[in-house]
Amino acid sequence: xxxxxxxxxxxxxxxxxxxxxxxxxxxxxxxxxxxxxxxxxxxxxxxxxxxxxxxxxxxxxxxxxxxxxxxxxxxxxxxxxxxxxxxxxxxxxxxxxxxxxxxxxxxxxxxxxxxxxxxxxxxxxxxxxxxxxxxxxxxxxxxx
Length: 144
Known about the structure:
Low-confidence stretches: none
CATH architecture: Distorted Sandwich
Helix content: under 10%
Radius of gyration: 19 Å
Number of domains: 1
CATH class: Mainly Beta
Number of strands: 10
Number of helices: 1
Strand content: 35-45%
Shape: globular
Order of helices and strands: EEEEEHEEEEE
Largest sheet: 4 strands, antiparallel
CATH topology: Deoxyuridine 5'-Triphosphate Nucleotidohydrolase, Chain A
C-alpha cells in the first residue's frame, strides 16, 4: 500500500479526516457547521479544511453508505473530484432523497475522501475502432 503526504489546513475546529478502520480506503470528512437539508433537496456543507494534493493525484468525495442506507443522504455529484491545484475549503454537496428534513450537526461525519493517482490520455484520432464482442451494446444490453 502506497502512502502519500498531503498538506492540510484547518479552517474550523473540527476533527481532521481519518480512516475508521485499518483497511478503509476513504477518510471520513466532518461537517464544519450545523445545517438542515430539506426533504428532496440539496445543500452545500463546509468541511472546515483545505488540502494541497500532490501533483499526479486527485481526491474524490464519496457518500457514506450508512447515511445513504439509513437516511437517504447522498453526495449529489458523486464522486466529486478535487484537483491537485485546488486550494479552497472542501465543500460537500449532499442530497436528501428522503421525505423528511435531515439535520447535520457540526463535527458529524458526512462523506468520505479517497485519493487516486491520475492517468492522462493523449488522443489518437482514427477513422474506425477495433470491433469487440460487445461492440455498441450499451444500457441494459446484457439484460436485467
